[in-house]
Amino acid sequence: MPHPYLRLALFLTLLCPLGYWFYQAWTFALGPDPGRVLLWNLGQWSLGLLLATLCMSPLQQLTGWRWIAFRRQLGLWSFAYALLHLLAYLSFVLGFEWSQLAVEIQRRPYILVGFLAFLVLLPLAGSSNRRAMRLLGKKWKPLHRLVYLAVCLGLLHMLWIARSDIGNWAVYAVIFAILMVLRVGVVRAWLIKRRPARNSE
């Protein structure tokens, strides 16, 4: 298991962007529409962290080190950023005017796609603890394969928003495609064979 200090370092590292954005907002450094900047940043970090959780298995297979031990923490942070992304939309864009939500969804269907991605993440975050793993038993792994659906929905949500400017989206999409290739049986076996013998278990 990784040292507790490593977990603490990861926690503080993933907390830093929130503090930095709060400082930027406090000093009026986020431009004329800080709410939308925060909305975009939070969404990108949520998707990026979700991809980071998928990186843990290939890294462990390649190095033999227990990268997988950080997966839960990364996944929960991804959910936290997704939740803040949703709250930022409800606050800065919708103004908590619930009557306008149906109108917004009709005009901008990507909002529904993003909300579906959040709903997929909800049971994953809620079942990430050991007690849930024991209760779900063999059903836990199939449930957590929904992470792939969450990433696909997140990518569609981001692509729909970016439209003509898809540079950042393409980076996320390529990373996801590579991670999917690394999960193919032959490729996974190749990674394990290349793992240093001293780290093999």
TrEMBL record:
Subcellular location(s) per record: Cell membrane; Membrane
Family label: Belongs to the MsrQ family.
Highest taxon, organism lineage: Bacteria
Entry's transmembrane regions: 5-23, 43-62, 74-96, 108-125, 146-163, 169-191
Keywords recorded for this protein, A-Z: Cell membrane, Electron transport, Flavoprotein, FMN, Heme, Iron, Membrane, Metal-binding, Transmembrane, Transmembrane helix, Transport
Protein name listed in UniProt: Protein-methionine-sulfoxide reductase heme-binding subunit MsrQ
Cofactor list: FMN; heme b
Gene: msrQ
